[in-house]
Design a protein that fits this description.
The chain has one domain. α1 runs antiparallel to α2 and α2 runs antiparallel to α3. It is globular, with a radius of gyration of 10 Å. It has 3 helices and no strands. By secondary structure, it is mostly helical.
């Protein structure tokens, strides 16, 4: 569920502050204990930098 939305948001995060915030908020909802969260954080970092 969250991963589908993260997939939609990822291409938008670099130029859209609202998309980036929603992405980060979803990661918080998923929680640090979820192994997928670390993967999505890496993808976010790669996209931004």
């Amino acid at each position: 569920m969250h991963e589908a939305r993260l997939t939609e948001l990822l291409p938008l995060v670099k130029g859209d502050d609202d998309a980036r915030q929603e992405f980060v908020d979803l990661l918080e909802v998923m929680g640090a204990a979820n192994p997928a969260t670390a993967d999505w954080r890496r993808r976010l970092t790669s996209t931004l930098f």
